[in-house]
């Protein structure tokens, strides 16, 4: 597990994987007559595009103790045509993005807790960067199979519910996509908070799952705050919810997650679920 959570090694592996996936033609480079022995760009081509030395690229990929500057990271991001989430991940690995000071939040800020209650009947909750659920309304608990009454507080974690809870194995209609997104979110959180031992412990536990380990090895990273999930709920049938994640300016380690029905049929199903006292 130490190799998995080594930011220097991950930075090198991440740069190498993004270099190898890039078609030279997409980077505006001329086609070479001789065949390429490796996929994607060569190191010298990345160095030329980024305006840095080949030796520096080699040392970065080999994790030889370098901490690249923000300017170098920006040049590499452009050269490798990184998506916004990938760029943020690269900066996090090199410790160049600001992050909340102190320990992660363990309780929701009172105004956020009141807001979650006021959002009923829309399912809502507040999580921290390691996906601990800090507060929730009854609708969110019912949507997530009554995690509040069926699981101990230590398991009130949205990533754990998605990836490890047995009852959730058949919950998502497109589980593969949901798992890929969850793993990509966990990876982004780890890069932003590599010092968080509790988060590292979660990742170690998740890695015992074969699907998580396989997806983690693919190096995907994402931190999108909205999307849609189709679910098969034992109490309300099949329906879809759209979710939105908001970060308060005054509490940047807390994220407000709000779910809404994706269509009229889902609205009716969600109403049946939340209107029943027993869920």
UniProtKB/TrEMBL annotation:
Cross-referenced Gene3D superfamilies: 3.30.450.180, lambda repressor-like DNA-binding domains
The organism's place on the tree of life at top rank: Bacteria
Signal peptide (residue range): none
Region annotation Disordered: where it falls in the sequence: 22-42
Biased composition (Basic and acidic residues): 22-32
Xref: InterPro entries: Cro/C1-type_HTH, Lambda_DNA-bd_dom_sf, MLTR_LBD
Ranges of residues in domain HTH cro/C1-type: 40-87
A GO molecular-function annotation: DNA binding
One Pfam family this sequence matches: MLTR_LBD
Protein name: Transcriptional regulator with XRE-family HTH domain
């Amino acid at each position: 597990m130490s190799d998995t959570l080594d930011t220097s090694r991950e930075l090198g592996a991440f740069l190498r994987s993004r270099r190898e996936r890039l078609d030279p033609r997409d980077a505006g480079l001329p086609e070479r007559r001789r065949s390429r022995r490796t996929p994607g760009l060569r190191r010298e081509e990345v160095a030329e595009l980024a305006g840095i030395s080949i030796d520096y690229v080699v040392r970065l990929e080999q994790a030889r103790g370098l901490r690249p500057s923000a300017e170098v990271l920006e040049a590499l991001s452009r050269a490798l045509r990184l998506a916004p989430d990938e760029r943020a991940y690269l900066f996090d690995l090199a410790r160049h993005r600001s992050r909340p000071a102190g320990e992660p939040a363990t309780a929701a800020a009172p105004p956020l807790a009141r807001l979650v209650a006021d959002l009923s009947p829309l399912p809502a909750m507040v999580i921290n960067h390691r996906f601990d659920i800090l507060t929730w309304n009854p609708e969110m608990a019912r949507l997530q199979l009554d995690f509040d009454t069926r699981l101990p507080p230590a398991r009130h974690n949205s990533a754990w519910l998605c990836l490890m809870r047995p009852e959730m194995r058949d919950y998502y209609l497109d589980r593969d996509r949901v798992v890929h997104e969850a793993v990509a979110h966990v990876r982004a959180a780890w890069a932003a908070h590599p010092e968080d031992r509790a988060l590292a412990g979660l990742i170690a536990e998740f890695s015992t799952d074969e699907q998580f380990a396989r997806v983690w090895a693919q190096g995907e990273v994402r931190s999108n705050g909205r999307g849609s999930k189709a679910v098969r709920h034992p109490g309300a049938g099949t329906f879809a919810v759209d979710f939105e994640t908001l970060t308060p300016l005054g509490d940047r380690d807390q994220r407000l997650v709000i779910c809404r029905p994706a269509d009229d049929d889902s609205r009716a199903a969600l109403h049946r679920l939340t209107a029943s006292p027993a869920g």
